[in-house]
């Protein structure tokens, strides 16, 4: 404690402040320690999150280069002529996403797989390597559809499914096949287009009642609400779309009921 001032009144105030500090000091120190611990934990969590994201990007890039050898499905393409409504630019789904989802969906040689917005055909190629009865990719861009056909032809010897097709069509006008049982969406379009696609799927189920599963990657809350809002699907599974980060975007699986 510093020397007390000569003035009696000032001395009294200093002594009162010192006494109050002595009474509150331990509690204040504990509060400061708790606050510092909270800040440290938040910073540590943030660093771990950034490290996980970085590791995930590196692993995904490596996996994409490994599995994409000899193909042309990785490069993002901006097709401005198709962005007049709620379409989005082409971005390939990561190679590990479909296999992870199909482990929970289950498939047989009676299933027909449709990817709505297949782009350059990466997911269609992956699906064709499994024992589906039919595999269909629907793509609005003739340029991307041609790349998809080239990809499928280059890997046809690896396909277990022998009925694989790329359809050039606006999904709004695409007639959903009545044997379609598994659908894949990598956030290919916005709400207006999704509403019309869901209407076509529901009408197809009405024509031919059957179990239908939908795999949606990176859904928004609005997307989930729209699918559940048809009153024909229930949410059955949510998976991480990341290789290392369980808090990343989700793979959501719905099933008709």
Explain the layout of strands and helices.
Elements (H helix, E strand, L loop, with lengths): L7 H60 L29 H9 L6 E5 L5 H7 L5 E6 L2 H13 L9 E5 L13 E4 L5 H17 L5 E5 L3 H9 L3 E8 L9 E7 L1
Parallel strand pairs: 1-2, 1-4, 2-3, 4-5
Antiparallel strand pairs: 5-7, 6-7
Helix pairs in contact: 5-6
Descriptive report:
The protein is α/β, with parallel strands linked by helices and about 260 residues long. It has 2 domains: about 1-65; about 80-255, Vaccinia Virus protein VP39 (Rossmann fold, 3-Layer(aba) Sandwich), CATH 3.40.50.150. Helices cover about 45% and strands about 15% of the residues. It has 6 helices and 7 strands. The chain has helices at about 10-65, 95-105, 120-130, 140-155, 190-205, 220-230, and strands spanning about 110-115, 135-140, 165-170, 180-185, 215, 235-240, 250-255. It has a 7-stranded mixed beta sheet, sandwiched between helices. Helix 5 runs parallel beside helix 6. The protein is elongated, with a radius of gyration of 28 Å. The mean pLDDT is about 85.
Using brief descriptors, characterize the structure shown.
alpha/beta, 16% strand, Rossmann fold, single chain, 7-stranded mixed beta sheet, 257 residues
Short description:
This protein has 257 residues and is of the alpha/beta class. 45% of the residues lie in helices and 16% in strands.
């Amino acid at each position: 404690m510093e020397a007390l001032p000569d003035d009696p009144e000032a001395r009294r105030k200093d002594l009162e402040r010192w006494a109050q500090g002595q009474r509150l000091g331990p509690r204040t120190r504990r509060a400061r320690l708790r606050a510092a611990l909270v800040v440290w934990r938040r910073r540590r969590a943030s660093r771990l999150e950034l490290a996980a994201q970085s590791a995930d990007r590196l692993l995904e890039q490596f996996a994409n280069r490994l599995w994409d050898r000899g193909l042309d499905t990785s490069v993002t393409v901006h097709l401005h002529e198709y962005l007049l409504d709620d379409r989005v630019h082409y971005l390939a789904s990561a190679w590990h996403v479909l296999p992870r989802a199909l482990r929970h969906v289950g498939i047989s040689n009676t299933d027909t797989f449709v990817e709505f917005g297949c782009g350059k055909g990466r997911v269609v190629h992956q699906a064709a390597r499994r024992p589906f009865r039919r595999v269909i990719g629907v793509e609005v861009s003739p340029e991307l559809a041609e790349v998809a056909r080239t990809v499928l032809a280059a890997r046809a010897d690896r396909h277990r499914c022998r009925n694989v097709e790329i359809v050039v069509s606006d999904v709004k006008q695409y007639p959903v096949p009545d044997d379609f049982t598994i659908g894949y969406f990598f956030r290919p379009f916005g709400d207006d287009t999704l509403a019309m696609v869901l209407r076509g799927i529901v009408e197809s189920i009405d024509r031919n009642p059957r179990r239908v599963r939908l795999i949606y990657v990176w859904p928004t809350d609005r997307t989930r609400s729209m699918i559940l809002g048809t009153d024909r699907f229930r949410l059955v599974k949510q998976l991480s779309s990341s290789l290392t980060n369980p808090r990343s975007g989700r793979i959501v699986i719905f099933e008709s009921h």
